[in-house]
Amino acid sequence: MVLSAPPRSSPARQRTKSAAPQPRRRIKSASRMDAFAPYMYIAPFFALFAVFGLFPTVFTFYVALFDWNPIGGQTFIGFENFVTLYGDERFWNAMRNTFSIWILSTVPQLLLALFLAQLLNNARLKFANLFRMTMLVPYITSVVATTIVFASLFGRDYGLINSFLNLFGIESIDFAANTFASHIMVSTMVLWRWFGYNTLIYLAALQAIPKDVYEAAAIDGAGGFKQFIFVTIPSLRPVIIFTVIVSTIGGLQIFTEPLLLSSPGLTGGAGRQFQTLSLFMYEQGFGDFKFGYGSAVGVTLFGLIVVFSVINYLLSRRITSDE
Amino acid sequence: MSAKRIARTVIAGGAALALLAGCSGGGDTDGKITLDVWTFGGMGLDEAFATYQEENPDIILKVTNAGGSDEQAQALTTALAGGKGPDVAAIEVGYMSQFKAQPQNFVDLRTLGADDIEDTYLDWRWSQGVAADGSVVGIPTDVGGLAMAYRTDLFEAAGLPTDRDEVSALWPTWDDFIDVGAQYREATGKGMIDNVNSAIFNPAVRQGDEMYYGSSDDDLVYDSNPDVQEAFGYALDAIDADITSRTPSWSEAWNAGMNNGDFAVLAAPSWMMTYISQQAPDTAGKWDIAAVPENAGNWGGSQLTIPAKSDHPEEAFAFIEWLMSPERQLEIFQAHGNFPSTPELYETADIQNFTSEFFSDAPVGPIYANSVKSIKPIFEGPQQRIIDTAILNTLSQVENGEEPAADAWPNAMKNVTTALGG
Amino acid sequence: MTTHSSSAAPVTRPAGRPFKRAFAGRVRWWTYAFLIASVFMSAFPLYWMFVVSTNDSAAVSQTPPTILPGGNFFALAEQVFTTVPFVQSLANSFIVAGSIAIAQMILSTLAGFAFAKLQFRGRDPLFIVVLITMMVPTQLAVIPLYMIMSNLDWIDSLQALIVPGMASAFGIFWMRQHLSTVLNNELMQAARIDGCSTWQIYWRIAFPLVRSAAFVLGLLAFVTAWNDFLWPLIVIQSPENYTVQLAIKALQRQYFVDYGLAMSGSFLATIPLLILFIFVGRKMVAGVMDGAFKG
Fold first, then answer.
1. Is-above-0.90 flag for pTM?
2. Low pLDDT (below 70) residues in chain B
3. CB burial class (10 A; 0-12, 13-18, 19+) of residue A37?
4. Rounded to an integer, what distance in angstroms lies between the CA atom of residue B232 and that of residue B174?
5. CB-CB neighbors (< 8 A) of C277 in chain A
6. What are the sequence ranges of the domains in chain B?
7. Is ipTM strictly over 0.90?
8. What fold characterizes domain B146-297+378-421?
């Protein structure tokens, strides 16, 4: 990167706002302003970011080294929290739940989005805007409201979904109590919230594929399905990777749904069957008064996300070089 | 300019940009004193607050209802951690041991004259507000004396007696209770109780002299105390006999179940009477109240504390003293069903003649008075709630068929160890 | 989000209009069938919210439950307003989400402009720091953030919700991508020759060009802030400072649980955003689709 100031020779540039009294100083301050100007543009962001983003992140690493009672004392214990954590069954359970819920929500969601985007990608489609807009409605509905509704829909005795299953002679499922069923329940909420958003992203990518590519494929004798596999999917690959990464970062942090389903209590069900890593962190920090231990969970979660982001970076680099 | 000052300046600028509004803060105006009071839902104190406000125009009561007792505890934790706090904070007994383990966060009420009113309250209820170092952290509110609420119509349909004395006589012990449940299952095909935690383990485990702690914070006996294991065993027997409808307390299905008769019996502390009558208004007259097996039991109640940061501890204490006086507690009981923690009321006509129309005119006054008199003080240590949660969760898992009953006890013990170790 | 710049094909079409070269085949009936099903799927939970909030709880907890709206709506709605300070929490949510949206639009276009078009020492490392922030889980910072708020004496105040939300790494990334695309170097050069200062270039040329992208960013920020739950739950205590989400939660977790009430609150809380969405939905759809290329 060029470190010196770029060659900007025009002396006529003046900042209308800077009204220094002396002409000499004025020129000097003008050129100085230019060197400093970029920093002035980013300063507000970085000042806020340093206090409310960077500092808390670094401080969490610090707290994680303590036995830290929020309303009591603090004792330095080094890495003991981490040692305990990696031997803690509840941590691994939360890890399994997090990944299971992430996969169950991401895979069907992206497939559905791809399918719907394909349907929407047609200039002759009527009511196209209506379809697109309705799909964003879940995105603007609050998670709290969504969770209350879905908890009711998935209820064991009075839930609409079980009533529906009963119609077909299927016995009621206790979605909240069973591990796998509870993951389905949480995943459905995540899927519902984001499928429309991803559909629109895929749709934009589909629209960017030139029509003549398809025409060429058609001339070569490729039918609709073959076109989809050999033209559409490869063209969408960067976008698909993008959505996978975003869903991964979001999926590893799933919190509000299990928290609300969990209440009363913070364990994510009696068997911790749907307690995710962030809910486990919250339980330890705010429920059981173990800030240090909770921070250790937070640091670990951060590490996980970094690892996934690095994998993402490497993958996307490979894809770029493929092109 | 120090980094801190820069940060402050930037933040102040940002804050100005952000169109500040709605700043809180109970400033004292006109020589009046504002008391910040934090409660949670279902304490039934609203009328009492209004009366106090009327009688004390120089004091402004600012009452905050945090929602449930969980939310209230989390709000108080964060407030105390941040060096803040209201003037009066209600703490549910389940959380009390966790908070009183750090008594420095609260005013020792002995300094304000708590010793003088100690004798007014049930001794075991009073002791729930006393910290290990002897300081008095909280004054008791109501007491959740236990009885069993049951549906007379469903009992009749199951061929069981419906008269409250006969029903009480059906289950002097927990084993008898489970037998009745088994009969009910056979006759109706339904579970008799809502869930084993509320209806069996909770009351049963509190009927001994000790629970999870012996006599001090370091004296953990949850794994060795035969009372815990016995109560746990009753819960397992109940699951085995299939007497539960597996309906978690406080769930939507629970509320609906009261209305629809999904279960016929639930453990009912006195404050639950209001809950049932509000959730299932159409079932009025179909309920009655019988004794709980082994007779004694408690569920719920709170302590009123004064966080150390309070600016007006004297006024706050005077307010608490007034609010929890026997006269006031009687009024609260009559309006909301929260049973007084002051025994001097128990033999009065007001309690002895108190009946409930919703519960088939049952003499709930004397029933609850009997239930709370026989409770013995139990020492509760700082990890009380964490241990309790681990054990209750294990039972729920068995109840839901997610874990085998055979491994339940070792699993519960393992879960407690993990929870304590983390 | 960090990776996609490689395929940032500049999309120059006007927002919301179809491509000229778009695919235009015959639309089969099952296309509509699937799309209508997806509309149903998107809208049903909202509809169900409405059904529950217009019926008494007995109607919904019978088997099979009713799936038609009842006549109980206004009674429950009134209860919502009396149980929690609902109007106040709506106002709070508007203040918080609105302030965050405006602040993000301003801060992000400023910094995005610097990162996209200005040369300065440390530019690239700083931008990488911004990218890394996008990976930090928000819950990670909650505990120390609480301590900061406590030191600033901001606990239980709206600025505790607003100020941390104003700086958005995503916002900077978003605006930088848009500014790089629309503001080419020839335009910059021409402006400089005309004697424009950097600030004038930003204010007179760059900002108007990305106004609509900034607006979409503001919308996304608004929705995110409106629906935020964890941080308000931890830092807000008094009902007069509740956001809408906390008000709904309070409805659900009063000791005397009434699900009709909770649903009614949820429904009422969603209405303002739905109304907003009717007006700006097209723009938002276009914005999300644009983001696919620039994000």
1. no
2. 1-30, 422
3. middle
4. 11
5. 133, 136-137, 140
6. 32-143+301-345, 146-297+378-421
7. no
8. D-Maltodextrin-Binding Protein; domain 2 (3.40.190)
